[in-house]
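Why run this: before we spend reagent on co-expression, it is cheaper to look at a predicted model of the complex and decide which construct boundaries make sense. The entries below are exactly what would go into the expression plan.
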Amino acid sequence: MKQTLLLAYKNVLRRKSRSAVLIALAGFLAFALFMTAMIISALLKGFTSLEERLGADIMVVPYEAATRSSLENIVLQGNTGYFYMNSDVLDKISAMDGIERISAQYYLASATSSCCSIPVEIIGFDPQTDFTISPWIRKSNGKELQYLDIVVGNDINAFVGDTLSFYGVDVRVAAKLDKTGTGYDTAVFTGRDTIKTLIQASLDKKLNEYGNINAGNVISCILIDVSDDAVTEEVLNDINIHVKKVKAVQTKEMISGIAGSLAGASYMGRLISICIWILALMIMAAAFLLMTGERKREFALLRVVGSTRKELALLVIGEGVMVSLLGGLFGIALGMAVLLPFSGLLEQTMGLPFLLPSAASMLTAALLALILCGLTGAATSGISAYKIAGADTGTMLRVG
Amino acid sequence: MLVHGKNIKKEFIRKKTDTNVFTAVRETDISLEPGKLTVITGRSGSGKSTLLNMLSGILMPDSGTVCYDDINIYEMSDRDLSRFRNRNTGYIPQGSSAVSSLNVRENILLPAMFGGNDIRIDDRELDAMMEKLSVYELAGVMPDELSGGELRRMAVARALILKPAVIYADEPTGDLDDENTKIVFSMLREAADAGACVLLVTHESDAAGYADVMYRMDAGRLDKC
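The model came back. Tokens follow.
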């Protein structure tokens, strides 16, 4: 058996072009399976992370910010944009029925910053009332933010203790957040007092298009947690009917709606994976049949010198498993090479939260893809092995 | 070791012919004795190779028995017959035969690879045989770089490497020049003289000069000359 496998190894190693074709086929299969699994998993994880973080039932924004695409951008990508409304809207909605918790957020886009190669969204929140960002920040920071303290997203090139400057105001990095797979990874978070200072600084430097606003009297968005005894839709309608120049939307519904579509896409992804696998299975089986057909005389020679039918089958299957595993490794390595450095690009292209699974999950998926490749190799070469091992040696010598 | 084929017969199915059945070898008796070189001549398609394959244990006859001494080889399991072939027979196939991923030396040592751990090859004897067959210099060369004649000489070395009791040679000099043909026939003769049964199927008229027993085969019928 050892000798047969050694011969299989030499066959794979020394017949380079033959092996390369089969390795490429198996590599394509592994790449497709691994990438599909990883992308679906990253999207699902991104949505779970977003759902956990965005604990509000309703989001209220100025009407001009309420086009469908910009709302999805805010909710799903954390790309907040840059809009304001008067803060008395907050008081008006607070007084309405069915409100359990309510908090305002403030958005500002920085023009330039030494820390960032991409435009930075600055998100301010009220630590006294906030119930969406604070719990998440508390995990990374562990203590309350002080005035002129900021928390940076995971992709921002700054570390705890660094000082950054926005519109001439120096701020201190108090914490760095975990990766979210959304635009929040390139955002900066800070308390209400700090953001108001920054908004005022942007107005002073005439770098804010809302030049005529009063920084102390504006908010960008209101997040609402509806009380248990109230119906979210009713609260939503109440706001949309009674509060002017604003638009209220259900955030969780938006997330769960898209997450639902994603579940369908995930099902389709799995279906496509199975189709790819069946296609690869058929192509590989045909390739093995063709290649073993061409080597009939070689197999007959092995029988002549004393190989048993089982050893012959083991040789063919051994070769199949070896090239499939090599192809599998190649495909997975290629998948990793695409996925790891370009996950940000994938996230941007898809416009959905995209959070790569943990290293352990990725390794598990890689291992499963590799095992599946090996099994595919064994199954497809098994057909050829069965034919060759069952063939008559004398006839193979004659017709080979 | 005495090889005896008794009433062996082989037919093949031919598609798209009226009769469908083609008789390659009619009921035949043949014995190969130790120390003797038996030569079978005959036209192409006369059944020589089929008879040789049946005797060597790689093509089961439709009827009859093939015995090595008292052992009916086609009653053995595949595993036992394969091991038996490995230990007792050497086979030089018609045409080129090589494992494409192994170099010349590895191809010659192929029977040792399947022979189990107790087979020991004397390197000096191997080198001497390779030199005699003019393949020593080609030890590390891959088969696809060899000429037809070199491939054939390599196959001869492979068949003789384990010093088998029975040697089958199916047109072993097909691609060889006169000098190499002589070398191959001489080596088969030497093997017979050393006690092996040798069956040589050939077109070469020169083979008669090396033979102890001569047969002629025509349309599946074997006749002693």
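Chain B touches chain A at residues 49-50, 53-54, 56, 58-60, 78-79, 82-83, 85-87, 91, 93-102, 106, 110-111, 113-115, 142, 158 (CB under 8 Å). The longest strand of chain B covers residues 21-32. Bring this page to Monday's planning discussion.
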